[in-house]
Design goal:
The protein has 225 residues and is an alpha/beta fold. Helix content is 40%, strand content 22%. Helix 2 packs parallel to helix 3 and helix 6 crosses helix 8.
Length: 225
């Protein structure tokens, strides 16, 4: 799939282009709105990732302009603007999802996959992930187990989504550090173990079948039956 990344911060641009390339996407980049408009007029993109703080125009104005010109590709907005009003405005003005900086690469990739799936198959419900009695609402960023709402931090939600998407399979600490925390070099850290411990305390409460299993020295498995 071919994507257009519109981001003027070169360090972020290079990092995202590499990360998206490693995830299997073909990526064109633009550092300003004028270049992005020119590329969209010449090529067809499966999706766009647009930063709002562009040097020549506001990213929302760019999205509106592209929509008026007939572009229908899904748009994932990136922005340091964190207020509810900013997010609502972005979604009302042509964006399909909104991710605030700083963000985990795994969350960006997950949201991008959801947008592309929804765009390619409008009838398919890809906004929710279910494993046994555990359910994640990817749009509302809400997790439940049975009738209980799980009070998860944003990082815990991303970690749980990754485990759910790999339910029944072993995921190693190295995989989690790379895909959830974006760490290419594996440091000597217990961040994975700490987050798994906290996550297990919220999911595998007393009276419920434990879902998260630790394989000592290897990694973890989220049970799916």
């Amino acid at each position: 799939m071919r994507l257009l990344l519109v981001e003027d911060e070169l360090e972020i641009q290079r990092f995202l282009r590499q990360s998206l390339g490693e995830a299997g996407y073909e990526v064109d980049v633009a550092s300003d709105g004028a270049t992005a408009s020119s590329l969209v007029s010449r090529f067809t993109y499966d999706g766009l990732i647009v930063d709002l703080g562009l040097p020549d125009q506001d990213g929302i104005d760019l999205i509106l302009q592209l929509r008026r010109n007939g572009m229908q590709s899904p748009v994932l907005i990136l922005s340091a603007r964190r207020s509810v009003d900013d997010r609502v405005k972005g979604l009302e003005q042509g964006g399909d999802d909104y991710l605030t900086k700083p963000f985990a690469v795994a969350e960006l990739l997950a949201r991008l996959r959801n947008l592309l799936r929804r765009n390619s198959s409008g009838k398919e419900d890809v906004t929710k992930v279910r494993v046994m009695d555990l359910e994640l609402d990817l749009l509302k960023r809400r997790a439940t187990r049975g009738d209980d709402v799980l009070n998860l931090s944003p990082q815990e939600f991303v970690l749980l989504e990754y485990l759910c998407r790999h339910a029944g399979r072993v995921v190693t600490r190295s995989m989690l550090l790379s895909e959830v925390w974006g760490m290419r070099i594996q440091p000597d850290t217990n961040v994975v173990d700490v987050h798994i411990y906290r996550l297990r305390g919220k999911i595998d409460t007393e009276g419920r079948t434990p879902l998260i299993k630790t394989l000592r020295g290897i990694g973890y498995v989220l049970k799916n039956h």
